[in-house]
Amino acid sequence: MRLIERTPTSLSLTWDVSPRPRIQSRTIRYEVMYRKKDGNLDVTTFVVLLLEKNSVQIGDLSPGTAYLFRVQALGSDGSPGGSSMEEQFETSSEGHLPQSNTAVIFGAAVGGAAMLFIVVVVLFLRKRKRNSHTRQGPEDNYFSSSEQLKPLKTYVDPHTYEDPNIAVLKFATEIHPSHITKQKVIGAGEFGEVYRGILKVPGRKEVAVAIKTLKPGYTEKQRQDFLSEASIMGQFSHQNIIRLEGVVTKFKHAMIVTEYMENGALDRYLKDHDGEFSSFQLVGMLRGIAAGMKYLSDMSYVHRDLAARNILVNNSLECKVSDFGLSRVLEDDPEGTYTTSGGKIPIRWTAPEAIAYRKFTSASDVWSFGIVMWEVMAFGERPYWDMSNHEVMKAINEAFRLPAPMDCPRLLLDKLLRSPESLKTIADFDPRVSIRLPSTSGSDGSPFRSVSEWLESIKMSQYSENFTCAGIVTMEQVLQMKNEDIKNIGVRLPGHLKRIAYSILGLKDQTSTLSVFAV
Question: Parallel, antiparallel, or unpaired: how do β-strands 193-199 and 207-213 relate?
Fold first, then answer.
């Protein structure tokens, strides 16, 4: 970057255009980030300009003040290209005028005031239309202080950055560790322990936070992987997505600080409160999860690890999607997929095509969401009970589907059962759309010809003799059975008892539906 002209309140800069950009698509924009150089490391505030030319005049600056600048090329798809080093330029002192005539000076002052007015107007409009996806103009200004910088249209994979530290700097707020107080360990993550704590930044209200830490002896690769989750979370802003408060990267012990969710993971919370919530409350939880997943899908983002254990719950029973360690970006096309590089796949929550081909799309997130719906209505029951992963894969490929949970409302199997083609992506789950659980009961959804055939379809054929000895030889008799009847014929294991009972309920409700509306 080169300084062209400076005044007490403005700087004019230009930079060279690389003849061979490091991005595949044509460079059509430049992202200029600048901030005042000072000793405040607590919260870093940047101003960001998006330009279509390789020069800029920046006004409304402080006289005799140093500013730090960095410019980065952007491709037509928003992907990052080459970037400059951070460079320092200083405005002139009061009374020191540039060597230009009065008209130029007056024009610069007017230009600075106009730019300030534009910035304020754009900031106001962005606040009013933060959920809108209106296309931006050719030259947009927006601020980032306590809020993270957002991409213009879609999520940007931080792994595409040549230097991962730049991604963290761009999407996350740096917090000084002296403002963080750890209180107690509340869990353990892949990279280290998770603490409940307090964040107290001067001039702001004290808030409870969750603090993810990086265990001692980490490698640089582990540190980058750890912080990449912050680079991902920092791009999202939705009430049903866990909120990133900031990161600590400039000190020895790296940390990720997020909002604190008092009730913890959804699966454990439901198990601890089995039977305590009404169907209306459970459906409200599902609505929140669906809203968060729809937002991620609108950002062209595939979660890949959606499960009740990765949903966090606060005191208001508001559910928020978390854990973006396995998540990946979805390419900007209808057939966009992400192929794993050999990582672990959560079999019980993953669509069969994703398991078979190791490819993930928004459609595979829909499958996972169906399993989450089952978990919620079953109060945290483990999907497929005590079946091994191999048995789960085999059963799914043979068209076995989870039966309706016990005491599930009769109508909770609506949209996919009647029109599966209408829900190919999470984006189809808008607040007034009906949703359903994975389809129920037997091998192909049709009535079974015999009790033994039904038992075999749910992997409970070892109880065929029990049913026969009890005189239950027709499916009509099976449909009349209650929990006590199942126990009385010799089914004692809780997992087996629930599997048989759920399947009977699923058979009864096979053609029933429930429309779930956001009110």
Answer: antiparallel
SS (H, E, C) 393-413: HHHHHCCCCCCCCCCCCCCCE
Task: Write out the two tokens for 440.
Answer: 């129920």
Local confidence pLDDT in tens for the 519 residues of the chain: 899 999 999 999 998 876 544 444 455 678 888 888 875 544 455 677 778 888 999 988 889 999 989 888 877 655 567 778 888 999 998 765 554 444 445 555 656 666 666 666 666 666 555 544 433 333 333 333 333 333 334 788 887 887 878 888 889 999 999 999 999 999 887 788 999 999 999 988 999 999 999 988 888 888 888 899 999 999 998 889 999 999 999 888 899 999 999 999 999 999 999 988 877 788 889 889 998 998 898 888 889 899 999 999 999 899 999 988 655 444 444 334 444 444 567 899 999 988 888 888 888 899 999 899 899 989 999 999 999 999 999 999 898 888 877 766 655 544 434 333 345 555 554 433 333 333 333 433 335 678 988 888 788 889 999 999 999 998 888 888 988 899 999 998 888 888 888 788 777 655 333 333 332
Q: What backbone torsions phi and psi does residue 429 show, to the nearest 5 degrees?
A: -85, 70
Residue 435 CB partners (closer than 8 Å, separation 6+): 286, 290, 373, 414, 415, 416, 423, 429, 516
Its pTM stands at 0.55
Q: Is 60 a catalytic residue?
A: no
Sign of CA dihedral 406, 410, 415, 416: positive
Task: Specify the 3-state DSSP secondary structure of 29.
Answer: strand
Quick count: other Cβ atoms within 10 Å of Cβ 495?
A: 13
Q: Beginning with the edge strand found earlier in the chain, give each strand of the sheet holding 244-248 in spatial order.
A: 180-188, 193-199, 207-213, 255-259, 244-248
Distance linking the first and last C-alpha atoms of the chain: 53
Contact 196, 186 (CB under 8 A): yes
| Burial bucket for residue 299 (CB in 10 Å: 0-12, 13-18, 19+) | buried
Exposed/middle/buried for residue 246 (C-beta within 10 Å: 0-12, 13-18, 19+): buried
The separation between CA 291 and the C-alpha centre of its own chain, rounded to angstroms, equals 11
- Is 212 known to sit in a ligand binding site? yes
Contact between 332 and 368 under an 8 Å Cβ cutoff? The reply is no
* Residue whose tokens read 């993270």: 148
Environment class of 131 (CB within 10 Å of its CB; exposed 0-12, middle 13-18, buried 19+): exposed
Query: Which amino acid is present at 432?
Result: R
Active-site residue, selected from the candidate residues 267, 298, 305, 365: 305
Maximum distance among all Cα pairs of the chain, rounded to whole angstroms: 106
**Contact between 440 and 402 (Cβ < 8 Å):** yes
CB-based burial of residue 343 (10 Å sphere; 0-12 exposed, 13-18 middle, 19+ buried)? exposed
